[in-house]
Amino acid sequence: MIRFDNVTKRYDRGREALSNVTLEIGAGELIFLTGHSGAGKSTLLKLIALIERPTRGQVLFEGRNIGRLSNRAIPRHRRQIGMVFQDHKLLEDRTVAENIALPMIIAGYSQREMRGRVRAALDHVGLLDMEKKTPSMLSTGEQQRVGIARAVVARPKLLIADEPTGNLDPELSLDIMNLFSRFNEVGVTMLIATHDIELVNRLGGRRVVLDEGKVESEGSSVSDHRSGP
Amino acid sequence: MNKLRTYLARHAQNCIGALGAMTRQPVASSLTVAVIGIALAMPSALNVIVQSGRAVAGGWDDVRDFSVYLRPDASIDQAIRLRDQLGESRIIDSARLISADDALIEFQSDPEFGSLLAALDSNPLPHTIVVRPSEDAAAIDLQELEAGLSKRTDVDLVKLDTDWVKRLNAMLDLARRGVLIAAIMLVGAVIVIIGNTIRLDIQNRRAEIEVTKLLGASDGFVRRPFLYTGFWYGLLGGSFALLLLGFSLWLLSEPMERLAGLYGAAFEPPGVDGGTALAILLGGLLAGLGGAWSAVARHLAAIQPKV
């Protein structure tokens, strides 16, 4: 589904965030991207979401070199991807339901379709009774679950998450990760960046370790039972 | 079909939503609308006044008329002969004789002059011939005619006085151009005001714009609410301008009518006609959209999501 071909990303300051990264991500996979902060995890995700473009090499998304996409084509590309952020990026002046509906509004779904799917997404993350509240009335863990509901509501092909548990205690973190696993089980490809190796070790899935912009090691985690082909 | 309906529904939502966002900040929005209204009303009011002035000046076409005052000792027969003679001239439309007796009767009916004339022994007024030149009479011919009449022994005075009408018309032309310049500058001001208001709006909603862009919103999607905001500012500002204009013309109509009456001109009290109203509303709308577009074009592209 996604292929990194000798991808290098150098920022203006001159440091190489990614150096010659080659990586293949198959459809339906669950991948944990780990490594120290500054290892290049966020950059890798940004290249997929076209928030940044590669300096060298190719990023192929379903066979297409997205580094070559025009700025006008970026929105359409992003609509195929669900994104979860460490700081969840919810809009404070809108209700939980309105926040979750946002990707569907952007994609131009009808009101009727939207209502059903928003409720389904809320149900999946266990917040059905919170739809009328605003994000500030929710706990950090609940806010993150709203963020996840928003990321999956438009049924993206790929979900990327950058430190989704960065602000959460271990118990809530596991909770969130289990939620991701459940979405993966219904076929969503997942790429989750986290520095919490201990947490990853308790979960299944493939692991990609980045160190100073290079892929240091690849493999399955100890308790792997669901690794891709 | 379904897509289209959803698209239109989205537009309607943006349209109403933009108005809703404005009503949530009633003071700031009202002030902006008021400023736009005043800026649009000013050139419109000036224009209506200048137009009225032109209408009044147009009513003074008969100022081309000139009066031939005969010497007091000239007889009524001489006056009739001169009138008939003038009436035959190619460059003269009509010549009307006001005899000294008729003039006296007319003046006696005037309360101020009446008592004054009563105090005199004899009629001090001369026979007068009011001459209306034909439309196509050349100025040079008229001047020649005037000179000829002045030389006659039975003519006391020829009063041809159209210079001040020409001057007035020249001034009105100048005023009209002034109004045009003022209109251009004030519409420019409206564009700047709306552009700046929307620039602030964009800054305030920066987080929202970033998030929607991250979620795959197209430029059009992000732009739309701001364009509708500009649309509303333009429309409401234009409507307010119409109100202001109607009110100020109502205040002006009475004194203008009196002034026109003093100059003996037929006068229609100025009003806001359909064309003017449409022009103001349309001007407001275009300025609103233009201002919004300029702000959006410059500031939206600069907002790119940072994660």
Please tell me about this protein's structure.
The complex is a heterodimer of chains A (229) and B (307). Chain A has 229 residues and is α/β, with parallel strands linked by helices. In chain A, 32% of the residues lie in helices and 26% in strands. The radius of gyration of chain A is 17 Å and the shape is globular. In chain B, 71% of the residues lie in helices and 7% in strands. Chain B is built from ten helices and four strands, in the order H-H-E-H-E-H-H-E-H-E-H-H-H-H. Chain B starts with a helix and ends in an 8-residue tail after the last helix. The interface between A and B is medium-sized, with 30 and 24 residues.
Key features of this structure:
heterodimer; A: 229 residues; alpha/beta; six-stranded mixed sheet; four-stranded antiparallel sheet; 7 helices; 10 strands; 32% helix; disordered C terminus; B: 307 residues; alpha+beta; 4 strands; 71% helix; 7% strand; rod-shaped
- Please give the radius of gyration of chain B in angstroms: 32 Å
Quaternary state of this entry equals heterodimer
**Number of helical segments of chain B?**
10
Give the low-confidence spans of chain B: none
How are the strands ordered across the major sheet of chain A? 6-7-8-3-9-10
Reading side by side through the largest sheet of chain B, how are the strands ordered?
Answer: 2-3-1-4
Mean pLDDT of chain A: 89
Percentage of residues in strands of chain B: 5-15%
Give the overall silhouette of chain A. Answer: globular
Q: What proportion of the residues of chain A form beta strands (DSSP E)? A: 25-35%
Helical content of chain A stands at 25-40%
Structural class of chain A: alpha/beta
Spans where pLDDT lies below 50 across 5 or more residues of chain A: 222-229
Biggest interface, chains and residues, is: A-B, 30 and 24 residues
How do the SSEs of chain B run, as a string of H and E? HHEHEHHEHEHHHH
Distinct helical segment count of chain A = 7
Distance between the termini of chain B: 37 Å
Tally of strands of chain B: 4
Specify the structural class of chain B: alpha+beta
